[in-house]
Structures are given as structure tokens and as C-alpha cells.
Design goal:
- It comes from Kocuria marina.
- This is WYL domain-containing protein.
- Pfam families: HTH_PafC, WYL.
- InterPro entries: CBASS_pafABC_assoc_protein, PafC_HTH, WYL_dom.
- This protein is α+β, with helices and mostly antiparallel strands.
- About 35% of the residues lie in helices and about 20% in strands.
- Among the domains are: about 90 residues, Arc Repressor Mutant, subunit A (Orthogonal Bundle), CATH 1.10.10; about 80 residues, no CATH class; about 80 residues, SH3 type barrels, CATH 2.30.30; about 90 residues, no CATH class; about 90 residues, SH3 type barrels (Roll), CATH 2.30.30; about 80 residues, Alpha-Beta Plaits (2-Layer Sandwich).
- Strands 4, 19, 20, 21, 22 and 23 form a six-stranded mixed beta sheet that branches. Strands 8-7-6-5-9 form a five-stranded antiparallel beta sheet.
- Helix 4 crosses helix 15, helix 9 crosses helix 11 and helix 22 crosses helix 23.
- The radius of gyration is 30 Å and the shape is globular.
- The N terminus and C terminus are likely disordered.
């Protein structure tokens, strides 16, 4: 943004924040309140409204800003005894004491976990709410709190359904949406939402499905329409706990085994979650290794195999001569003189009929997925992407609200620390000295209606120490709003799933946060119930070793799988922090090979050894927040097209821009049938595009997004992993690489041959 444009925007934001502050002071000043016209006359800034309609819109926005910050703007009848009924107009006020923070005090341990929870969000909107909540709680926090630097959970939301669902949960409103289950079957749901939360890297909604008259849990990424929030209200069950529901989602051990042929020296990510094939009956063709993949269902197995593209294949049957005897429970065939030259399979390790049925089911699923991926990619040449102007929704509102929140926080902070040094105060707020002086100058010209010298806020900072006066009502601690408390509570909820955390302290902090918002049911809905110590999440041996290395200042030698390059590398790392995000654990530290900070997923660490004493790296120490987000610019920049099932990719991969597009129908399909949701057999569902008058509105069927990837193989793997839901439009070299990847992927190899 050019400097002059940036300066203009800053002045506009400051003017709006000044008007809002003067409006708040006026609403607090007079218990009987003011009419709209009176406020228009006495609040500086409303004179800039060109006409009555412009003023009305400005006033409605200002009321919404104040309410979102925790000040309940009330509308009361006019108290003019001489006015006729036709002349009566409502008056507005903020009742004194209605916004004050309830009596609550956090211990040092609770204050520490609150600081960690407020720092957890990667979502910008929720991050602002959580930090604003922590600012409001500052008077109630312990000064002895010292947030741990060795562990940091992060919370990211890539599901557009999250915000409307969270709002419906808080307002107890019934919702409607279109949903697809694991098999691809499409249904329309009407749900009373009880709670939302994340577990194992996914977000879930729990509630009462009114169509099925039963309690159900939904994965947000499978909601393929906008969430329609109705006016229908409900009372959630008193004993429901979303935290308890999430804690009860224990991953079941895989019960299916699939044999996969993996190309020698490749498919490292697949090898990481597999083991050598236990039976010699599955002989891999030359240049491949046979591995056994333990999975929960055929679709997840097919997804893993498709992600490896040309480097993985699923055989349908064992080696010739083994299948018949295996089906009969016998041993491998023998020659006339004794055992065959091949290894003899006993009845214990020979594949059973069930094993072969599983193999065929997975092979069919892989073939279907690759077929769908090729068909979808074949339609990409007909896609016309026209970006247009990218709009920043809510940017002005956010900056104005943020500035007003900071002004109010400055008043509260300085009143509690009169005479605080200007430089120290600026550091506390994360702004420059000049920005703090500008804020103090804004406060200096704000005050009660009339704006005479004795009615303005008294601010002085000439000697480098800040003093404020004549703003007593603004200095009172303010209660949390429900959205602010929810953002902080969901950060705390994430801490409950972090191995090695203290759930007792987290639950106590959640209760107090809900009290600060005068909304105790929030904590009951989000917190996990008390449980035995045996039920608490535990660190793996590797994570324990890494945390010990951080604690004792030790360097580690890592054997690390780089998935985007499909290779295992050796790294020497000075670890400084563990990060828990989306159900995964990461270690962040200084990588000596890169001579820079790096983040490593623990489930991709093949080996870990002590490598001596770690060093202190100034750049690492200066990092306030550890990030696991990708670099701002990656080598491969591509335009991908997703359907409604793949819409999460836009957020998850931090798309730089996106736009709705049209995709030509597949051969033999019409535009209408192509746009309809499909059932498990990829057939359009009749009438699925029709919606009830109050039903959910379908999302854009196709969206083009500009996304960066580390390698062309990583992009190609995304296309095959989410087969039929993602395609690539440009650049030409990326399209060519994806098409070659798809054409080289073999869905059903001939036994005994590559």
C-alpha cells in the first residue's frame, strides 16, 4: 500500500475510533440517555454524515462496535412528559455497572495457561478475540505468571462452517446444512448444535439431529453448503460436555491389513506408516517392495495409496498358485520332489479369503479415485479464471474496533499503573512510542458532551511518564463478551488434548473465564469432565526425549522424512519448543544445516539421537510466537480448482486469492446434473439442487484458488489424494506434471509384473 494511502487509512481509523470513544462516554455519562438527534448534535464526528440516512447507518455501526466490545447499549423510552406519542423517540444509554468484570482472580498457573491459550489461534478473527479477552482479564491475572516456552498449542480453522456454527451454538439456534458422509452419500440435516471442537486435526459439531431423532457428531469439512441458522431455539442438555465428547473420541486400532507394492527408494511417507509384508504370498514385482498397511477402512487405504501416485500399487491377488490353497486353508503347492523353489506359505501366514476381499475392495477404490481424478483434470482446459478485484471483507470494521479496544485498554492499564514509563508501556502494547503518543493525543481530545477543558480526559506524558485522569468510568475492568470468552475457552480446550498438560489447571481456568463473561454454561459445554489420570493424553517416547532435550539444552541429530521431496535427510537441531497443532506434534528449533529456524513433524522423525550441548541462537530467542505456517513464497505457484468437497483447501493452503468459476460438464452430463451433489456411486442425486425456502444455500460449486506448493510432486499428490475434487489449471508446467503423475499411476498392476 502506498505511504499516502496508508496515512489516509490510518487517519480515517483514528477519526472513527475517536468518534466511538466520545459516543461511549456520552452513553455512560447520562443515566436517562440521549435520543439519536441529540447524539448527532453532541458527538464530534457525526457532523461528517452528509444526510440522515448516512447518519443512521453510521450510528447503527457504532452501536454494534460498542456492543462487540462488551458495552450493552440499551434503548429506553423517551422520558419527555410533554411529548405526544407521535413525537416519542427512543433514548440510548449504557447502564452504569452493566459492563463491569465480575469478581474473579486467576492463580499463577491459571494465568500461565491463559497466556498460552490466547497465543494459540492461527485464525486472525479468533486470535483478535482471544487476545482482547486476555487484555480485559489483565487486572485479574497473577503477576507471578510465567508462560512456559517449551510447549505451544496452535488452533487453526480451515472450515467455513465454523463461525456460523459457533454462533448458533452460543445462541442456541437450530441449523440446517448439506452433509456427505465418509462413503460420499449426500443428505440434508437439521441439527440443534450443542458444541463444536477439534480432535485429531479435525473440527466436529455435536448436537441433536432432529430428522433422525438422535444425537449425532458431524465433521465440519463434510458440510458442503452454507450453514443456515434458523430462528428456532432450543435448550441444550445440562449434562452435555463437548470436551467430554472430544475426550471420548479415542482412535480405534486399525483392523484391516492391505498389501501395497511400493517402488524401491520411493514412497517414504507410505513406508513410514507401513510394515514389511508378513506373508511371502504377496510377491512384489521387480523394482518394488511389498509392505502391509494397517487401516480403518478401504477408503482411507485408497487415499494413502493414491497420494503416492506412481510409486504405489495395490495387488488384487497373491502370487499364482497360492490363492486356491489359501482359500481352502491349505499350504502352498509343492513340486514332485519336495517344496517349491518359492518360499512355502503355511496356513497361518497365507492370505485368507477375507484378506483377498479386502485387497480387491481397496484396489477398486484406488481405481475409482484415479479414474475420477483423471476425469476431473480432463475438464480443466475449459475453465476460465477471471480474478477480478479481491475484496477485504470487514477490514475497516476490524481496524476501527481494534483501535478503540486499544484506546480503552490503555486507559485501564495506565489507571492501574499511574506514572508508568512511556517506553515500557509502548512495549507492553506491542506498539512504537510514536503510536502510543498518537493514542494519548486522541484520548486528550475526548470527553463528556460539551467538551470543555474540565470535561475532557486529562492525559500527560511530557516527562516520559504517563498519567491519566477524568476517565474513571472507562478505567473499570470490562466483562468478556461471549465471543471473546469462547475464543479463549477453545484455546484452553486445545490444551486439554496436549500430552503432558495439567487438565486440572485448565478446567479451573475455563470455569473462571466463563464466569468473567457471566456465561458459566460455556465452560460446561467446552471443558472435559474430571477424569482419572490414566485417561490423560501421554507423550510418546520420542516426544519425551525431545522435551528433555529442550529442558536440558541438548542438541539432537534427527533422521527426518521430507514428504514433499520423498526422502529421508539428516539434521542437527537445537530444539527450543514443542508445538501441538491439528492433532499433530512438532518440534521447532535451530537447524544447523539450514542455519535458520525450522519446524519438524514428530511423526516424520525416523530417528533421534543426542548430539551434544545446544547453542543459544539470538534469532531463535527473539521469536515471540513459533509458527508452523509455510513460507510466504514457495517454488511452485499454481491455480487449482476445487469443488464443494474440496473447498477447505482454499483456507488450509493459505490461498492468496480465489474466485468462483464454472467447470464444463463431463461427457454425457448436463450442466444441471454436473452441479448436483452425488451419492456414494458418483451418481447425481435427483432433486438435490432444490432447496426449501428456509433451507441451506449451496456454496459455489467450483472455486479457483492461487496456492503455493513446495514441489510439483506435492501438488500432484494433492490431486490424487483428493481424487475428483481437485484439478490444476495453470501454469502449463504444473498441468503437465499433474497429468503425467495421473497417467503414470497404475490402479491395478498385473501380479508378478511392474
Amino acid at each position: 500500500m502506498p505511504p499516502h494511502v496508508e496515512d489516509t487509512a490510518r487517519r480515517s481509523t483514528t477519526a472513527s475510533a475517536e468518534r466511538l470513544l466520545n459516543l461511549l462516554i456520552a452513553l455512560l455519562d447520562r443515566e436517562s440517555g440521549y435520543t439519536r438527534e441529540q447524539l448527532r448534535a453532541i458527538v464530534p464526528g457525526y457532523d461528517r454524515a452528509g444526510n440522515q440516512d448516512a447518519f443512521e447507518r453510521m450510528f447503527e455501526r457504532d452501536k454494534a462496535h460498542l456492543r462487540s466490545l462488551g458495552y450493552p447499549v440499551e434503548e429506553i423510552p423517551d422520558d419527555d412528559p410533554w411529548a405526544s406519542d407521535a413525537q416519542l423517540t427512543p433514548r440510548y444509554r449504557v447502564p452504569r455497572g452493566s459492563y463491569r468484570l465480575p469478581q474473579v482472580r486467576f492463580s499463577a498457573e491459571e494465568s500461565a495457561v491463559l497466556a498460552v491459550a490466547a497465543d494459540a489461534w492461527n485464525d486472525a478473527a479468533q486470535d483478535r478475540l482471544a487476545r482482547r479477552a486476555l487484555d480485559k482479564l489483565e487486572p485479574a491475572l497473577s503477576t507471578e505468571a510465567a508462560p512456559g516456552k517449551d510447549l505451544q498449542p496452535t488452533v487453526a480453522v480451515a472450515d467455513p462452517a465454523f463461525e456460523p456454527l459457533l454462533s448458533a451454538v452460543l445462541a442456541h439456534r437450530t441449523v440446517r446444512f448439506d452433509y456427505v458422509d465418509r462413503t460420499g452419500a449426500f443428505t440434508q440435516r437439521t441439527v440443534q448444535p450443542w458444541g463444536v471442537g477439534s480432535r485429531y486435526g479435525a473440527w466436529y459439531l455435536a448436537g441433536w439431529d432432529t430428522d433422525r431423532n438422535a444425537e449425532r457428531t458431524f465433521r465440519l469439512s463434510r458440510i458442503i453448503s452454507e450453514v443456515a441458522v434458523t430462528r428456532e431455539t432450543f435448550d441444550p442438555p445440562r449434562n452435555f460436555s463437548m470436551g467430554g465428547r472430544l475426550a471420548g473420541m479415542v482412535r480405534q486400532r486399525p483392523h484391516l491389513r492391505v498389501i501395497v507394492f511400493v517402488r524401491e527408494g520411493a514412497g517414504q511417507l507410505l513406508r513410514r506408516i507401513a510394515a514389511p509384508a508378513p506373508s511371502p504370498a504377496w510377491r512384489a514385482p521387480e523394482g518394488f517392495d511389498a509392505v502391509a498397511l494397517a487401516v480403518h477402512d478401504t477408503e482411507s487405504a485408497a487415499e494413502h495409496v493414491c497420494a503416492a501416485g506412481p510409486d504405489a500399487r495395490v495387488p488384487r491377488e497373491p502370487a499364482p498358485g497360492v490363492r486356491d490353497d489359501a482359500a481352502q486353508g491349505g499350504s502352498a503347492p509343492t513340486t514332485e520332489g519336495g517344496p517349491s523353489a518359492e518360499s512355502v506359505s503355511t496356513s497361518e501366514d497365507a492370505p485368507t479369503a477375507e484378506d483377498i476381499a479386502t485387497q480387491n475392495a481397496v484396489a477398486d477404490a484406488v481405481a475409482r479415485r484415479l479414474r475420477d481424478a483423471r476425469a476431473f483434470q480432463a475438464r480443466m482446459p475449459g475453465v476460465d479464471v477471471r480474478w477480478g478485484k479481491q475484496r477485504r471483507h470487514g477490514a475497516a470494521k476490524t481496524s476501527t474496533e481494534q483501535h478503540l479496544a486499544r484506546l480503552l485498554h490503555i486507559v485501564r492499564h495506565v489507571y492501574a499503573h499511574q506514572g508508568a514509563e512511556l517506553e515500557e508501556t509502548a512495549r507492553h502494547f506491542g506498539i512504537t512510542d510514536a503510536e502510543l503518543v498518537n493514542d494519548l493525543q486522541t484520548l486528550f481530545v475526548c470527553g463528556r458532551p460539551g467538551h470543555m477543558p474540565d470535561q475532557l480526559i486529562d492525559a500527560s506524558w511530557d516527562d516520559g511518564h504517563i498519567y491519566l485522569g477524568n476517565a474513571q468510568e472507562l478505567s473499570e475492568p470490562v466483562r468478556l463478551t461471549v465471543p471473546e470468552a469462547s475464543a479463549l475457552l477453545m484455546g484452553l480446550q486445545t490444551l486439554q488434548a496436549v500430552p503432558g498438560g495439567d487438565s486440572r489447571v485448565v478446567r479451573s481456568a475455563m470455569q473462571k473465564v466463563a464466569t468473567a463473561a457471566d456465561a458459566l454454561p460455556l465452560a460446561d459445554a467446552l471443558a472435559a469432565p474430571d477424569a482419572d489420570a490414566a485417561a490423560e493424553p501421554r507423550d510418546s517416547e520420542l516426544v519425551t526425549r525431545l522435551r528433555d532435550a529442550i529442558k536440558n539444552g541438548r542438541r539432537v541429530r534427527l533422521q527426518y522424512l521430507v514428504a514433499s521431496r520423498d526422502e529421508v535427510t539428516e539434521r542437527h537441531v537445537d530444539p527450543v519448543r514443542m508445538i501441538f497443532s491439528d492433532g499433530q506434534q512438532y518440534v521447532r528449533g535451530w537447524c544447523l544445516q539450514a542455519n535458520a529456524p525450522r519446524t519438524f513433524r514428530t511423526d516424520r522423525i525416523v530417528g533421534c539421537e543426542d548430539a551434544g550441548e545446544a547453542e543459544v541462537h539470538p534469532r531463535m530467542e527473539s521469536e515471540v510466537r513459533s509458527s508452523i505456517q509455510p513460507a510466504k513464497r514457495r517454488p511452485v505457484q499454481a491455480v487449482v480448482v476445487t469443488d464443494r468437497r474440496g473447498r477447505w483447501i482454499v483456507e488450509h493452503y493459505h490461498a492468496k486469492r480465489f474466485v468462483e468459476v464454472s467447470v464444463p460438464p463431463a461427457p454425457g452430463e448436463t450442466e444441471d446434473s454436473d452441479a448436483a451433489p452425488r451419492d456414494a456411486n458418483s451418481q447425481p442425486i435427483p432433486g438435490s439442487r432444490a432447496r426449501a425456502a428456509r433451507g441451506p444455500r449451496p456454496l459455489p460449486e467450483y472455486v479457483a484458488a492461487e496456492v503455493d506448493f513446495p514441489t510439483l510432486d506435492a501438488l500432484s499428490s494433492l490431486v490424487t489424494r483428493h481424487a475428483g475434487h481437485v484439478g490444476v489449471v495453470s501454469p502449463p508446467e504444473a498441468v503437465a506434471a499433474v497429468e503425467q503423475w495421473l497417467n503414470s499411476s497404475c490402479p491395478e498392476p498385473t501380479p508378478g509384473r511392474p
